[in-house]
Design a protein that fits this description.
Elements lengths: L12 E3 L1 H9 L12 E3 L1 H7 L15
Antiparallel strand pairs: 1-2
């Protein structure tokens, strides 16, 4: 979900540092693989898609 407060890099991905910190404090083995804490954004999904996609970025000049 993209809204007016979204930063440009969030279109590509978001890194959940808080969850990773929590997991490290609880001794969770997931903490060793950063992929567990990366959420792909719409831009990332568009780059990875096998189909051609159109990604509409409206009002980018206001970012």
């Amino acid at each position: 979900h993209i809204k007016s407060t979204t930063k440009a890099h969030q279109g590509l991905y978001e890194y959940d540092a808080v969850s990773r910190l929590r997991d490290s404090q609880l001794g969770d083995d997931r903490v060793h693989d950063i992929k567990n804490y990366i959420k792909k954004g719409k831009l990332w999904e568009a780059f990875e898609s096998d189909e051609q996609l159109v990604l509409l970025i409206d009002e980018i000049d206001k970012a």
